[in-house]
Amino acid sequence: GENVEQHPSTLSVQEGDSAVIKCTYSDSASNYFPWYKQELGKRPQLIIDIRSNVGEKKDQRIAVTLNKTAKHFSLHITETQPEDSAVYFCAASRNSGYSTLTFGKGTMLLVSP
Amino acid sequence: DTEVTQTPKHLVMGMTNKKSLKCEQHMGHRAMYWYKQKAKKPPELMFVYSYEKLSINESVPSRFSPECPNSSLLNLHLHALQPEDSALYLCASSQDLSPETQYFGPGTRLLVL
Predict the structure, then answer these.
(1) B40 and chain A: CB distance < 8 Å anywhere?
(2) Residue A94 has what pLDDT?
């Protein structure tokens, strides 16, 4: 089955800095890669996703890049703000029959004012 | 309506109790999911329903019993739970089972005494 590794487990940055979270996946058939943000006590919320026919996607301060050959994808947050502090989960899914999400273990991002 | 709702928000139950968790969505999604999430861990898939039929059961103990009465509603019946079953139970839905965005409900925080 699919295995998703996520690094780092904790990331501390100063407000205004950039943050990068990296994930690798094992199943070359995976073709959908969402990123979820989960604030303490709240639901996971999709912040951006990318499909395997695209190498990069950007939405304001958030961007995701995908390298299919190396089987890794990354989340980039620029100009971080304290409200970006949360746990971020990457996930991978394949389009084959019953498709489900395999999550990484999460990255706790702390943005200090 | 673009939200997944869950009730109750919090639940405390004894090991001999029977209780049910409820999940509802009115987005016309045909796939619905139950996840279990422990603190500082990613969501862990329990069950998947597609077109109101159980598609995936991730070897979940029989003390958890899912039910999908209609395309908008998903229940999780709980009976004879153990303290280690205490967790956040998340419901999610997606358009269908192909890799599509999964939208999560706010969860039910369950404590088993």
Answers:
(1) yes
(2) 79
